[in-house]
Amino acid sequence: MKQIVEQHCNCLVIKLKRKFSQGLGQYSLDEILSAPPEKLDDIASLFDKNREQNLEHFKFIRDEYERFATKKKEYDAYDLATKLKLNVCPYCNRIYTFTLSRGAEKYVRPQFDHFYDKASYPILALSFFNLIPSCSICNSSVKGSKQFTVKTHLHPYLDSFHEKVRFSVRFKNMNGYFDEDSFDLVLKTESPRAQKTIEDLKLELLYCQHKDIALEQIQKAYIYPETRIQEIWNEYGGLFKGKDELMSSLNWGFIDDSAIERRPLSKLMKDISDLGRKNEVPFGIEIRKLNQH
Known about the structure:
Shape: elongated
Number of helices: 15
Largest sheet: 2 strands, antiparallel
Order of helices and strands: HHHHHHEEEEHHEEHHHHHHH
Oligomer: single chain
Strand content: 5-15%
Structural class: mainly alpha
Mean pLDDT: 87
């Protein structure tokens, strides 16, 4: 990551240096472009102290971002997205964010969300850790120009959403194995910043569109108890690198937290599957009754 940050800054500093006649407080151009997430709020606070003048003085950085966001032969957003190799939106874990290009042809890439809105803070418009590769729903449709800060929201480069949030289910009735309308998906967290992120990105509302996936995971938890998984492992273990890989295959997702960002909905599938295997989904008795008839 350090090398990617350095390359990003080196490619942009030459273009910006001619117009960067003064810094902001103690921050030079290089420091602004490479500022770690923890420093972004400090830069934003300094910017606010003389907001009107700074909006006019630093708008050239936002203008340069608009050029950076277009397809160019020189260093642009496609180059940065290619280096980051992020497959899934880090905000929602719902949508692929592949970057596709071939030679000089550039086809598709993730959008870059400005964690600190570029209209409000043009000075951060090209800062590496202010550029979050994300899906269009999170960036354009939901987040938009909402005011995010590292003090109030989770920052994808600083925080692990997967570690701070857990999916669960809230049941309305006992028809859960047959009817996805019998339960709601909920996101649980003890972190105020994570809760604010969930609310502002409408994540519970978005994930309620995936209750069919959650229902499948609940069903699989009972179809594949530990005894059945061990039987499959004994018979087909040679097809997999390890038992975790077998579990991922059965779950249609990744059970290793470090791999969740590789496939959409992996966090949802892992958490709901875990609920079922830990008997936190209260359908076991009902299933046993059904099996007796």
